[in-house]
Structures are given as structure tokens and as C-alpha cells.
Amino acid sequence: MFSEDSFLRRHKIITGLAVVLILFSLWFLSLRRGPYQNYAVDFLIPANGKALEAPGPLQVGVAVRDITADLSQYDSWTDGNNNAKYDIIEDCMKPWQKPLMRAINSKAHFFDTEKAAKSGDTYVDKNGNGRFDGCWIAGFSSNRPAKGVHDPQWTRAVAVRNNGVTVVMVSVDAIGLFNNDIVAIRKMINPALKVDHLVVSSTHCHEVPDSMGNWCGPLPQFDCGPYVQKIQRLTKEAVEEAVASLSPCDMYCATADVPKEGYVDDSRKPVVQDWHLYLWRFTKPNTDQTIATCVNWGNHPETLGGDNSLLTSDYCHYIREGLEKGVPEPNGVKGFGGTCVFFEGMVGGLATQLHTSVPKRDGSGTIKEETFEKAENLGYNVAILAANALRGPGAWKNETPFVAVAAKTVMAKMTNPVFKYGIMLGIIHQGYYWGGYSKTETDAIRIGSVVISTTPGELYPEIAVGGVEAKPGRDFDIQPQEVPPLLDEAKKFAKQTPIFGLCNDEIGYIVPKSQWDIKAPYVYDNKSQYGEDNSGGEEVAPAVHKGMLETIRRINDTFSTVPAATAAAAK
Questions:
Q1: Burial class (CB in 10 A: 0-12, 13-18, 19+), 19
Q2: Are 360 and 367 in contact (CB under 8 A)?
Q3: Exposed, middle or buried by CB within 10 Å (0-12, 13-18, 19+), for 467?
Q4: Cα torsion for 432, 437, 441, 442, to the nearest 10°?
Q5: Which residues have C-beta within 8 Å of that of residue 509, sequence separation ≥ 6?
Q6: Using one digit for the tens of pLDDT, what is the confidence trace for 166-216?
Q7: Residue 299 pLDDT
Q8: Cβ count within 10 A of residue 249
Q9: Is the pLDDT of residue 570 over 70?
């Protein structure tokens, strides 16, 4: 028989283990749920196109905030072998990781400590925690600490208002922000400003601080909270300032053709691109005084490649500089003044300039190497196209700028184990739903004869412009699911149809299901292609297409209920 003391000890142990198990279960459940498990959007404003106020002159407001990382708040370091990496991996580990990785290293040679020691890398432990806490650059490898700042990074907000509806569109120089991050910003906005909807698009720059937790060290720590909080706080400030500065304006629109050589390549078959720049210019009424210009174009900002250690917004910086201040000679253009906002477009597929030879403005040749000279020429070349289009005969005034917005929460099933279990564990994209689903969002915004669609990741352009293929040997013996093409639907009434990529989320590549190709024999040249490993799975594209189509059709309904706008769009 057990003594009373023995029974009490066993009881305490069992109780303690039960408490630990309960606490662990609650912690795990909180990770799976995320902070906004029950948050959802599903609306059209104004409902049925019936405006609360009579349409009048469009109002616009713009504001910017500098979100550049303060490198003095991070550990500084010396790159002893100048390879853009911090080679002494143990210096980057948390205390609990070190014994685990030493055990792994003894069997799998996870890292070569002797080689690392010879690298000459050193760091200054500013916070005294015994670990190298660098400012990790997103994109490419997860071991790329910043050495300095080449140009500032921004969050830029454009607010529009008419007929009682206020919408704010934000572009952030970030690799991506998750839906929960955007919801948090929405909840921070002063309700007295009566913002009906906020959309936030990331430029997807591959040379800015990690905002997703995927690139934060040779052993990713999945912890970039302080920097994301900085983005959220400053974006909230920019949104509120933009709304507070709303004033009447004229809106001019233009669409420029992008040359098919020297600007962007599609590195994955089938080769499909939207070869256009979508452009706006807001001016003070009946004047040539610019308040803001906007550019929408789909191309990965990764010109500098994976060896660059300076923070930069890549070619986006030069587009904005060129339209605000002008492009210097030779072959330059005059700037517009005001504030330029660049909105990323469709970058799936993969739209990139990494392998592109960019023409120099002086006509002396092309640049293929991954340099700032290449980024400058690419950005300025785009700025020249944009400026000439906005000043050219093809520019048109948006005469009846009725404002409407539609939004829809979308549930997408994650079949890629990295995404599925990463979300389940709360490591990435918080918010897991039973059956392997994750929550995201699609939106559509109408400004007169312009209809903007948003996509929550890196959309393959064929889903929007057409050209989804279903070739023999495909993984799924189905016909294209993502039909009709989104832009065909948007163009039924709209005169211009830009798409904002990585908007209100970053769920990775949105690959047409009939083009999903991870099983041999492969469809294109019997070779596997890059894309599926950075996608949530083959069910994502059909779900996103369905959501985008629904929001576009809701916005189309507003044209039929506003006769003046319909007549203007038909001209």
C-alpha cells in the first residue's frame, strides 16, 4: 500500500503535469487561432450602389512615413570574408538552440565551425544577450544582415472620398505583411475619420528588413514583431494624415505599354505578362499642380540580387524619385512634384528582372549585373514611360469619380505541408481553420471609370489576363479552373483595370491548378519549374480567383445603378 506522503507526491506530480499540458494546449490553440480568428469582411459600399451622398468632385489626400530600420538599434557587425553572410551560426542561436544544433552537427555537419571561425566575422553585442541580433534582409537567403542604408523605405497612403465613401490605399516597402498585420492597422485607425475600408499592398522588395519572419537569421527566429509594429504604427499615422488632408482634385489616368525587352522577364512557362503600366495623376482642380501620382506595375523588386547588404527599395525608389523630382539627363524627363506611390502588381510566374539586360538611358548599352546602376536605369526607364504617358494624348480625365468598395474574406485550403503546418503551429500567417484552411481577403475598388482589384499574394498573370494552360501530363487532369480571366470581367464597364498584388496578405504564389506541376514527367520541357514550393497549394488559386471575381462583379453592379458613371465609362 502507498503511504499518505507517497500518494500526495504522486498526486502533485500528476496535477503538475496536467497543468503543464493544459497550459501547453492553450498556448498551441492560441497560435492556431491567431488574434483575429473571427474577423471577416463581406460587403459592398455603398450597398446596391445607392450612395449616401450625391457624387461631387473627387477628394484625395496623401501622406508618407519613413519606415527605414534604425540600424543603431541592431547589433553591428564586420563581414570578415565579405560574403554578405554572418558565418558563425552559433552566434545567432538562442540558448536552447545551441545544444540541439551541436548534437545535430556532430552527425549531420550542419555547419563547419572551423570554417566559420576563419571567416573573420565579428559583431558588437549591444544589448548584452550573448547573441548576434542583426537587421536581417528579406528575400533570397535567410542569412543576410544589413550593413547600411542605400535609400529610405516608406509607407505611403492615398485616400479618396466621394459620395460618402472613403477608401485608403497604402503601399509599404515590405517583402509582405500577413492579413492579421493589416487587420491590426485597421483597428488602430481613429473611427471618427469614417474610413470605410483600408487596403495595404506590399511592394515585395527583396532588399528591406524581414517583416514575415522567414529570413531572420541562418536559423530563422520567426520573430520580426518590433519592425512590423513600427510599420503598423507609422502606417496608421500616414492613413490618418491622408484622410485629414482630403481636398477636391482632378484625376487623370493613362496606361503605358511596357517594352517586352529590357524591363521584365517571365521566368516560368507559360510566358504570360500584363505588359502595361497603370498610371494616375491627381491635381488641384483646374490646375497643373500635382498632389500625387500613382504607378501600378508587376515586377519583383530584386534587381540587386542576394549578395547586396544595403537596405533599399530597389527600382521602386527610382520610379518614385523620377516622377516626383524628374529623371536627370541624358534622356530625362521633368518631374511632377507631389508624392508618388508605387503599387506592386502581379509578380507570380515569376516576373523578374534578375536575368534581364536593362538598357542604359544614355544608349551606351545594357546592364545585366546585379547592381544599383541596373536598378537606377530600370526605375528611371519606367518613370520616363509613365511621365510621357501622363503627359501624352492618351491620358484621360476621370470625369465621374463615383467611389465604391467591395471586400470578401476567402478561405483557401493549404495542401503544401510547409504552409499547412507552419500556419497550424502559428509560425507563419496566423489563423488555422479545421481541415487545413487559412483565411485571406480579396477587394475591389471603384474610382469612376477605374476598377482596382486586389490579390492577397503573388498572382500568376494568366489568371487575370488569360492564358491558363492545361497541357498533357499535368498533375491534375482538369481544365483551367480560374476562368473567366479577371480583367475580362473588370473591363465590362471600367476603362482601366489595375491589380494590386500582395494586398492585405502574402500567401505566396497563386498558381493555376491546371498548371500545378510537381510530379514527373513534367509538362514544360520535362523539367520542374520554380513556384509550387512557395505556394500554399493547388487549391489556393481557384479560391482566390473566385473571391476576386465576386468582388469585381459587386463593383460592376455599381455602374448599372449610377447612370452618369455608366455613360462616361461607355464613351
A1: exposed
A2: yes
A3: middle
A4: 170
A5: 348, 350, 457, 458, 460, 531, 532, 534, 535
A6: 999 999 999 999 999 999 999 999 999 999 999 999 999 999 999 999 898
A7: 98
A8: 23
A9: no
